[in-house]
Amino acid sequence: MKARRIVVTSGKGGVGKTTTTANLGAALAVRGKRVILVDADIGLRNLDLVLGVEKRIVFDLVEVVEGRCQVRQALVRDKRFGESLAILPAAQTRDKTAVSELQFAEVVNNLTEMCDYVLIDSPAGIEHGFRNAIAGAAEAIVVTTPEVSAIRDADRVIGKLQERGLPMRLIVNRVRPEMVRNGEMMSVDDVCDILSAELLGIVPDDPEVIDTTNRGVPLVLDPTQRLGAIYTKIARRLEGEMIPFTQLGSGGFFGRLFEVLRAG
Amino acid sequence: METQRVFSAPSESSPQIEIHAPPSPVESQKTPKTRGRTIVVTSGKGGVGKTTTTANLGVALAARGARVVLIDADVGLRNLDLVLGLESRVRYHVLDVLEGRVSLADALVRDKRVPTLYLLAAAQNREKDDIATDAMVGLVEQLRDEFDYVLIDSPAGIEMGFKNAVAGADEAIVVCTPEVAAVRDVDRVIGLLGNRINAQLVVNRIRPALVRKGKMLSVEDVNAILRLPLLGVLGDAADVIVSTNRGEPVALDEASATGAAYRTIAARIAGEDVPAPQAAEPDGFMDKLGSFFGGRR
Question: Over chain B, what is the mean pLDDT?
Answer without folding.
Answer: 87
